[in-house]
Amino acid sequence: MRAEGTFELARRCFTKTQKLLILRRANYKCQYCGTTLSEENFEADHKLPFAQGGATEVWNALALCTDCNRRKSDKLEGE
Ligand SMILES: [Zn+2]
């Protein structure tokens, strides 16, 4: 019953600094659809899902636009 608290301790969210690095590394482009990213429409996402043990680290991150990120998480949650 305490699973959600455990996720928080393991830090599921990328920090602001990590996000900037991820964004820069992706050349400000969504890694799914190629749309140009800005800090407003950008979301950092786990390459290997957090739920499967993926680390919240820059090397395990994808730069996605909000649309792609929403589409991806809808799919994951539906499974
Ligand atoms: Zn996209």
Keywords:
single chain, 79 residues, alpha+beta, DNA Binding (I), subunit A, two-stranded antiparallel ribbon, 3 helices, binds zinc ion, zinc ion binding, nuclease, nucleic acid binding, endonuclease
Q: Biggest sheet, in brief?
A: 2 strands, antiparallel
- Strand order across the largest sheet: 1-2
Give the amount of beta strand, in percent.
5-15%
Kindly name the structural category.
alpha+beta
Give, in order, the helices and strands: HHEEH
Mean pLDDT: 86
Distinct helical segment count = 3
In angstroms, what separates the terminal alpha carbons?
A: 20 Å
Helix content: 25-40%
CATH fold-level label of the domain at 26-79: DNA Binding (I), subunit A
The appropriate CATH architecture of the domain at 26-79 is: Orthogonal Bundle
Class of the domain at 26-79 in CATH? Mainly Alpha
Distinct small molecules: zinc ion
The value of Rg in angstroms is: 13 Å
Number of strands: 2
Overall 3D form: globular
Low-confidence stretches: none
